[in-house]
Amino acid sequence: MAKVKTHFVFPEELLKDIDRIAGDRKRSQFVVEAAKEKLERERLKKTFKEIKGLWKEDDYPEFRVMEDIEKWVSDLRRRDLKRQRGIKVG
Fold it and tell me: Measured between alpha carbons, how far is 16 from 9 in angstroms, rounded to an integer?
């Protein structure tokens, strides 16, 4: 990925906090990583808004109550552990 120099204006205290956390000469890297994280959150928010309503409760009655969801997740995890350990899952 090509790099481009740019100019941003930050509040002084914010820069001091970034420098304290990021360390010497790592400010740009820190800001780039923070921007990537923010962009990913925004993309996820957009996706969640777009898919809202696709999941109909009537289509999945086995997931109506939290206990059923928890059991399903536990079963998946147990199967994955068995698979990782080389135990045949059927």
Answer: 13
Mean pLDDT across the stretch 26-49?
96
Summary count for the chain: helices (H), strands (E): 3, 0
Domain layout of the chain by residue ranges: 12-51, 55-90
22 is written with which tokens? 């990021």
**Gap between the Cα atoms of 72 and 90, Å rounded:** 16
pLDDT attached to residue 59: 85
Residue 64: DSSP 8-state: S
Instruction: Say if residues 63 and 72 touch (Cβ distance below 8 Å).
Output: yes
Q: What share of the chain has pLDDT > 90, as a percent?
A: 67
Return the structure tokens found at 79.
């199967």
Of 37, 43, 38, 31, the closest CA to residue 3 belongs to 31
Question: Is the predicted pLDDT of residue 63 greater than 90, yes or no?
Answer: no
What's the Rg (C-alpha) of the chain?
Answer: 23
